[in-house]
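Researcher: Structure prediction, please.
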Amino acid sequence: MTVARILADKGTDVVAIQPHRTIGEAVNMLANKRIGAVVVTGADGALLGILSERDIVRALARAGADALEQPVTRHMTAKVVTTTGRATVAEVTETMTRGRFRHLPVVENGRLVGLVSIGDVVKTHIEEIETEHRALREYIATA
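Model: Predicted structure follows.
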């Protein structure tokens, strides 16, 4: 299964925040949307970074409550690892595990087209295993 298939199932909506917005605004966005990360995009939609719950915790540890008034660009992860729709679930799992992050923007032809989370990847992996299990049971039952 590929990332493109995951996006076809879950949708391509990506929650984004503008670079001048504050960490406090990002916190409210994460809480209201019940998500763990937002991508930071420029006016042209270009991917500038990603801000995760972990980035926010680090910001609070460094600057205390003052971090909530600082722009997201100050604390976002600017060197964003991305993937494409052609990547497999196994490849994305490896990338996320190796990089120790839970959200991976999907970019095609320089444009942000989606975001996959570790939850999306695990769900897909479980569905693949269940499908294989059903097929094996049916094969054994008819053999």
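Model: The chain has a mean pLDDT of 93.
Researcher: Thanks, that helps.
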